[in-house]
Design brief:
Blueprint lengths: L2 H10 L5 E5 L2 E4 H17 L7 E5 L4 H12 L3 E5 L5 H10 L2 E6 L4 H7 L8 E4 L10 H5 L15 E3 L15 E2 H14 L7 E4 L6 H4 L1 H6 L3 E4 L5 H11 L3 E4 L1 H8 L14 E4 L6 H10 L3 E5 L9 E3 L21 E2 L16 H8 L5 E4 L6 H7 L8 E4 L14 H10 L4 H8 L1 H6 L17 E14 L5 E15 L2 E3 L11
Parallel strand pairs: 1-10, 3-4, 3-5, 5-6, 9-10, 9-11, 11-12, 12-13, 16-17
Antiparallel strand pairs: 1-2, 7-8, 13-14, 14-15, 18-19, 19-20
Helix pairs in contact: 1-2, 2-3, 15-16
Length: 503
């Protein structure tokens, strides 16, 4: 999918519905569509060919963000420029990314004027909000251009080139395809709550995660409310005014929100999902946020991933009884359902750091869920010395219907197929985890006097095919099948066979 597909999908649900909002003024989906047609024509008139790079340098602004869709319709590539960067850094990015045209806000005019002479590849400049001696205004640039449908074919799937954070050196351009953005959008829609038409409040820079989170909002015909500068009081007022359902802030700004005197009195009842990410968050302050703000949701990733490696939706912050799961609040969440993860290098070899961690006592668990077990990873790790210490399962709303069938007997059987003995497999699911949590001989044992919590299984011989979360298949000849569960000495559930009785 291209960026315009998210816009057009939202427009199909109601072209008159508000799409981008700032300072009380709306651009409808139809408005943004028509503007995107003109921008595409403007880029074409400026000599921008399909596949060329077009940069945007602006703070949060509806017009600047609408330009993204015009760039996409012109089959060009969006290069978001971080407005917080220094002039030298942006000069480096514009040059290294081979940007041919720059759309910028007048507040950055001194920076642009200072670097433009050193950017021979930059053939055109357009100022979004006023006429400048060295750059036409956006209105003049678009003068005389029609706003009916206009769209060019792409030459490849390259959609955008964002820069890395530059924490380990100079920023690097990350080539993200339409398929990358589509996967990130799908992960967002799969992993977090969305009820009705969402309203997304964008305070964080639209050049980063706050921007790409707009695309799943648009697929549902939702509204994006944009703030051009940080103001916590206004942020709270906008949540109430527009009945905001989703928003994103980094931890430092969440701390400011928690310290704001208007927080507790503000109406936050509309919130469905308050994303946090981009940096570690204090578990103590996160617990406070859960109590005082509402449904918090972590996202963890990187520009290269992009954005969604692991996820922790609001419900995962709580136990089944509604109490806060403090032990999870320092976690990065679960591996996303469309994500494959492994501790390996680019050649598929186990990283020495993984083995070293194992040797110094770090425990390895098989948390087989909707996206967190892969035969190709296990078959490299185990021979290299990273045999898992424990076998668990991860049944939840997304993993229950996954191709991997991650209920515990099935996961144990997969390790039988990979060469583990029955004794090893049983121990990894019972006595070993009991020892790790200091509960031996109370659990994970058949000793006299221990609680009678017993899972009875049948070891069935015969050909069987196992499937992981990536649809890789492996054949085996042994399979554990549940027969009966005994809880505290009482048979539980429907038995497979006599003499066990139904509770």
């Amino acid at each position: 999918m291209r960026f315009i597909d998210y816009l057009d999908k939202g427009a199909s649900l109601g072209a008159d519905a508000p799409c981008l909002t700032m300072d009380g003024r709306d651009l409808s989906y139809g408005d943004v569509q028509r503007l995107s047609y003109r921008i595409a024509r403007g880029l074409e008139r400026s000599g921008i060919a399909p596949g060329e790079k077009v940069a945007i340098l602006s703070g949060n602004d509806p017009l600047a963000f609408a330009c993204v869709f015009g760039i996409s319709r012109a089959a060009a590539v969006w290069c978001p420029i971080n407005p917080r960067n220094e002039a030298a850094e942006n000069k480096f990015i514009l040059d290294q990314f081979d940007c041919s045209l720059l759309l910028f806000h007048s507040s950055f005019a001194p920076m642009v004027e200072a670097v433009r002479q050193d950017l021979p590849k930059l053939r055109a400049l357009v100022c979004l909000d006023q006429e400048l001696p060295f750059a036409p205004s956006f209105d003049r640039w678009l003068s005389g251009l029609a706003d009916d449908h206009h769209q060019r074919d792409t030459i490849d799937d390259l959609a955008m080139i964002p820069g890395t954070g530059g924490t380990t050196g100079k920023p690097k351009g990350v080539m993200l395809s339409g398929r990358n953005i589509e996967a990130m959008t799908a992960l967002t829609l799969m992993g977090y709550p969305f009820k009705g038409r969402p309203v997304y409040l964008a305070l964080a820079p639209l050049t980063h995660a706050a921007g790409v989170l707009c695309f799943p909002i648009m697929t549902l015909g939702g509204r994006v409310v944009i703030m051009h500068h940080p103001d916590i009081g206004e942020f709270l007022a906008l949540i109430a005014r527009y009945r905001v359902t989703h928003t994103f802030l980094p931890p430092t700004v969440i701390y400011m929100l928690l310290d704001h005197p208007e927080l507790d009195a503000a109406d936050r009842s509309s919130l469905q999902c308050f994303w946090y990410g981009a940096a570690p968050i204090s578990a103590t302050r996160l617990a406070e946020a859960l109590q005082r703000i509402g449904p918090m949701a972590q996202l963890f990733g990187q520009t290269e991933a992009p954005m969604m490696i692991s996820m922790m939706p609001p419900a995962d912050h709580y136990h089944a009884d509604g109490t806060i799961a403090m032990e999870r609040l320092s976690s990065a969440g679960r591996i996303g359902p469309l994500v494959q993860a492994g501790i390996m290098d680019g050649d598929g070899k186990l990283l020495p750091a993984a083995l070293a961690a194992k040797q110094r006592g770090v425990l390895f668990d098989v948390g087989h869920g909707g996206g967190s077990f892969d035969f190709t990873v296990a078959e490299v790790a185990i021979p290299a010395g990273c045999t898992p210490d424990t076998i668990s399962s991860d049944i939840h709303v997304f993993s229950g219907n996954s191709p991997g069938v991650p209920f515990l007997p099935n996961v144990m059987s997969k390790f039988l197929a990979m060469g583990s003995s029955l004794d090893q497999v049983v121990a990894m699911a019972t006595s070993v985890p009991a020892r790790i949590i200091n509960r031996t001989p109370k659990i994970g044992t058949l000793q006299r006097g221990a609680p009678a919590d017993v899972a009875i299984m049948d070891l069935v011989e015969g050909p069987v095919t196992f499937v992981d979360t990536r649809n890789n298949k492996r054949d085996g000849n042994l399979q554990l099948k549940p027969v009966q569960t005994v809880v505290n000495g009482v048979p539980f559930g429907r038995p497979y066979q006599a003499p066990f009785s139904v509770r």
